[in-house]
Amino acid sequence: MTEMTETKLDRGIILVLRLLMGWTFLYAGAWQIWDNFDTAGFLNHVVTFHDVFAVFATPTMLPITDFLVKWGHLLIGLSLISGLMVRVSGPFGILLMITYYFAHMKFPYIEEPVNFLVDYHLVYATVIVYLIAHRAGHVFGLDGLIEEMHMVEEYPILKPLVG
After folding, report:
1. Which of 11, 14, 119, 129 has the highest CB neighbour count under 10 A?
2. For residues 61-72, average pLDDT
Protein backbone atom coordinates (compact mmCIF):
# COMPACT_ATOMS: atom_id res chain seq x y z
CA MET A 1 0.00 0.00 0.00
CA THR A 2 1.42 3.36 -0.94
CA GLU A 3 1.82 5.95 1.77
CA MET A 4 -0.07 9.18 1.28
CA THR A 5 1.92 12.37 1.62
CA GLU A 6 0.12 14.62 4.00
CA THR A 7 1.02 18.03 5.27
CA LYS A 8 0.49 19.11 8.87
CA LEU A 9 -2.64 20.91 7.70
CA ASP A 10 -3.96 17.71 6.06
CA ARG A 11 -3.32 15.73 9.23
CA GLY A 12 -4.94 18.45 11.33
CA ILE A 13 -8.06 18.45 9.16
CA ILE A 14 -8.24 14.66 9.29
CA LEU A 15 -7.94 14.72 13.08
CA VAL A 16 -10.56 17.45 13.49
CA LEU A 17 -13.02 15.69 11.13
CA ARG A 18 -12.48 12.39 12.94
CA LEU A 19 -13.09 13.97 16.35
CA LEU A 20 -16.14 15.93 15.17
CA MET A 21 -17.73 12.86 13.58
CA GLY A 22 -16.78 10.78 16.61
CA TRP A 23 -18.41 13.27 18.97
CA THR A 24 -21.54 13.34 16.80
CA PHE A 25 -21.94 9.56 17.07
CA LEU A 26 -20.81 9.31 20.70
CA TYR A 27 -23.22 11.99 21.91
CA ALA A 28 -26.12 10.48 19.93
CA GLY A 29 -25.46 7.05 21.40
CA ALA A 30 -25.01 8.31 24.96
CA TRP A 31 -28.17 10.41 24.75
CA GLN A 32 -30.20 7.52 23.29
CA ILE A 33 -29.00 5.12 25.99
CA TRP A 34 -29.44 7.63 28.83
CA ASP A 35 -32.86 8.83 27.67
CA ASN A 36 -34.02 5.30 26.75
CA PHE A 37 -34.75 6.44 23.19
CA ASP A 38 -37.34 4.34 21.36
CA THR A 39 -36.69 3.97 17.63
CA ALA A 40 -40.32 2.97 16.99
CA GLY A 41 -41.52 6.58 17.03
CA PHE A 42 -38.84 7.55 14.54
CA LEU A 43 -39.43 4.54 12.27
CA ASN A 44 -43.21 4.94 12.26
CA HIS A 45 -42.92 8.47 10.85
CA VAL A 46 -40.89 7.48 7.79
CA VAL A 47 -42.74 8.62 4.67
CA THR A 48 -41.04 7.67 1.40
CA PHE A 49 -39.93 4.13 2.26
CA HIS A 50 -42.37 3.42 5.09
CA ASP A 51 -42.88 -0.27 4.26
CA VAL A 52 -39.13 -0.94 4.29
CA PHE A 53 -38.54 0.78 7.63
CA ALA A 54 -41.74 -0.53 9.27
CA VAL A 55 -40.15 -4.01 9.39
CA PHE A 56 -37.60 -2.70 11.91
CA ALA A 57 -40.39 -1.34 14.13
CA THR A 58 -42.28 -4.63 14.49
CA PRO A 59 -42.52 -5.99 18.05
CA THR A 60 -40.02 -8.77 17.30
CA MET A 61 -37.45 -6.55 15.59
CA LEU A 62 -37.77 -3.41 17.71
CA PRO A 63 -35.61 -4.56 20.67
CA ILE A 64 -32.86 -5.56 18.24
CA THR A 65 -33.20 -2.30 16.29
CA ASP A 66 -33.09 -0.26 19.52
CA PHE A 67 -29.99 -2.08 20.73
CA LEU A 68 -28.15 -1.76 17.41
CA VAL A 69 -28.98 1.92 16.97
CA LYS A 70 -28.06 3.00 20.50
CA TRP A 71 -24.92 0.94 20.96
CA GLY A 72 -23.93 1.30 17.33
CA HIS A 73 -23.83 5.07 17.66
CA LEU A 74 -21.86 4.83 20.89
CA LEU A 75 -19.28 2.34 19.56
CA ILE A 76 -18.80 4.17 16.27
CA GLY A 77 -18.24 7.37 18.25
CA LEU A 78 -15.70 5.72 20.56
CA SER A 79 -13.91 4.22 17.58
CA LEU A 80 -13.65 7.52 15.75
CA ILE A 81 -12.58 9.52 18.79
CA SER A 82 -9.90 7.03 19.80
CA GLY A 83 -8.85 6.29 16.24
CA LEU A 84 -9.23 2.57 16.90
CA MET A 85 -10.53 0.32 14.11
CA VAL A 86 -11.78 3.24 12.00
CA ARG A 87 -11.79 0.98 8.94
CA VAL A 88 -14.24 -1.30 10.75
CA SER A 89 -16.54 1.30 12.32
CA GLY A 90 -16.52 3.67 9.33
CA PRO A 91 -18.67 1.53 7.02
CA PHE A 92 -21.23 1.09 9.81
CA GLY A 93 -21.32 4.87 10.26
CA ILE A 94 -21.84 5.29 6.51
CA LEU A 95 -24.63 2.69 6.58
CA LEU A 96 -26.37 4.55 9.42
CA MET A 97 -26.09 7.91 7.67
CA ILE A 98 -27.44 6.55 4.37
CA THR A 99 -30.26 4.82 6.27
CA TYR A 100 -31.17 8.08 8.03
CA TYR A 101 -30.98 9.92 4.73
CA PHE A 102 -33.67 7.68 3.25
CA ALA A 103 -35.66 7.60 6.49
CA HIS A 104 -35.93 11.41 6.51
CA MET A 105 -36.81 11.61 2.83
CA LYS A 106 -40.06 13.17 1.66
CA PHE A 107 -38.98 12.92 -1.95
CA PRO A 108 -37.49 15.05 -3.42
CA TYR A 109 -36.95 16.85 -0.12
CA ILE A 110 -34.97 15.52 2.78
CA GLU A 111 -36.58 16.28 6.14
CA GLU A 112 -37.27 19.95 5.33
CA PRO A 113 -38.24 21.77 2.11
CA VAL A 114 -34.90 23.61 2.25
CA ASN A 115 -33.01 20.33 1.72
CA PHE A 116 -33.54 19.40 -1.92
CA LEU A 117 -32.02 15.92 -2.52
CA VAL A 118 -29.04 16.59 -0.21
CA ASP A 119 -28.80 16.97 3.55
CA TYR A 120 -26.25 16.60 6.31
CA HIS A 121 -26.53 12.79 6.38
CA LEU A 122 -24.91 12.60 2.95
CA VAL A 123 -22.26 15.09 4.03
CA TYR A 124 -21.49 13.01 7.15
CA ALA A 125 -21.31 9.81 5.08
CA THR A 126 -18.89 11.52 2.69
CA VAL A 127 -16.73 12.71 5.58
CA ILE A 128 -16.54 9.14 6.90
CA VAL A 129 -15.51 7.89 3.44
CA TYR A 130 -12.77 10.53 3.47
CA LEU A 131 -11.63 9.41 6.93
CA ILE A 132 -11.43 5.78 5.85
CA ALA A 133 -9.58 6.66 2.62
CA HIS A 134 -7.04 8.76 4.51
CA ARG A 135 -6.46 6.19 7.27
CA ALA A 136 -7.71 8.59 9.92
CA GLY A 137 -6.97 6.15 12.74
CA HIS A 138 -3.26 6.64 12.02
CA VAL A 139 -3.45 10.40 12.59
CA PHE A 140 -2.96 10.71 16.36
CA GLY A 141 -5.09 7.57 16.79
CA LEU A 142 -4.69 4.08 18.19
CA ASP A 143 -4.70 2.36 14.78
CA GLY A 144 -1.22 3.70 14.06
CA LEU A 145 0.12 2.57 17.43
CA ILE A 146 -1.44 -0.89 17.27
CA GLU A 147 -0.30 -1.48 13.69
CA GLU A 148 3.31 -1.12 14.86
CA MET A 149 2.90 -3.71 17.62
CA HIS A 150 4.58 -7.09 17.32
CA MET A 151 1.18 -8.77 17.71
CA VAL A 152 0.03 -7.45 14.32
CA GLU A 153 3.15 -8.86 12.64
CA GLU A 154 2.60 -12.17 14.39
CA TYR A 155 -1.10 -12.34 13.44
CA PRO A 156 -1.48 -10.75 9.96
CA ILE A 157 -5.25 -11.25 10.13
CA LEU A 158 -5.34 -8.21 12.46
CA LYS A 159 -3.70 -5.92 9.87
CA PRO A 160 -6.93 -5.03 7.98
CA LEU A 161 -8.59 -3.98 11.25
CA VAL A 162 -6.04 -1.26 11.95
CA GLY A 163 -4.13 -0.93 8.65
Report:
1. 14
2. 94
